[in-house]
Design a protein that fits this description.
Keywords: FAD, Flavoprotein, Membrane, Mitochondrion, Mitochondrion outer membrane, Oxidoreductase. The protein has about 220 residues and is an alpha/beta fold. The protein is built from five helices and ten strands; from the N terminus they run βββββαβαββαβααβ. The longest helix is centred in the middle third of the chain and has 13 residues.
């Protein structure tokens, strides 16, 4: 007989949590922590009322490891035209959790390369965590930051994620099934890199990845 671990969240109902801590990442993003005596699920919903009393619901992806007891952590980004419960910038964080889990497995040999594009250096989320993961990965995880509007202090890569950047940094399509590419970001960036999504469907492969010779089976997910 096997039993499933009790989780902190219930997909069929809302649960109340007390706010434990708010940690500012940058000018528009913060990490919120709530105490929990149970394990978490991979995705939860947060809700509340707006200024007019209307319900607002958003999906949230926990950034604390799923097996971590005692804490549930979320990263929330404020948008100028957003509602009172701000849309979670969760796309990059899903990838962060996946990488974190794989790197923790002693017999795993999968390598990860992340190209992280942002407008300014201040927009880079979880940079300290990513740099720490890279330093402890024994070469299995590498991250390259690229900034489209750098200031005078920025010494890293400049510009946008395009075919030239991808070709210089990622494994090539000739590796076949041994390479998998995940693409996430705002719709315009996703379209330029891998072709637009078709509603909730993935859509056809296009953009820079198609130009470089990657095939649909190698671009595992656009989100």
């Amino acid at each position: 007989m096997t039993t499933q671990p009790v989780t902190a969240l219930d997909s069929a109902d809302f649960r109340d949590f007390s706010l434990k801590e708010v940690i500012r990442y940058n000018h528009n993003t913060a990490k919120v922590r709530v105490p929990s005596s149970r394990r978490q699920r991979d995705l939860c919903k947060g809700g509340g009322d707006d200024n007019e009393g209307k319900p607002v619901v958003r999906p949230y992806t926990p950034v604390s490891a799923p097996h971590t007891p005692g804490e549930l952590a979320l990263v929330i980004k404020r948008y100028p035209d957003g509602t009172d419960i701000h849309t979670l910038f969760h796309r990059n964080l899903i990838r962060h959790i996946m990488t974190q889990h794989s790197l923790a497995q002693p017999n795993e040999t999968t390598k990860f390369k992340l190209i992280f594009g942002n407008v300014t250096p201040a927009d880079i989320l979880i940079r300290e965590e990513l740099d720490e993961m890279a330093s402890k990965s024994n070469g299995r995880f590498e991250v390259r930051y690229i900034i489209s509007r750098p200031d005078e202090t920025w010494t890293g890569a400049k510009g946008r994620i395009d075919a030239k950047v991808i070709k210089s940094y990622l494994p090539g399509p000739e590796l076949g099934s041994r390479v998998m590419v995940f693409v996430c970001g705002p719709p315009g960036q996703v379209a330029a890199v891998s072709g637009p999504k078709d509603g909730l469907a993935q859509g056809e492969l296009g953009g820079a990845l198609k130009d470089l010779g990657y095939v649909k089976e190698q671009v595992y997910y656009k989100f």
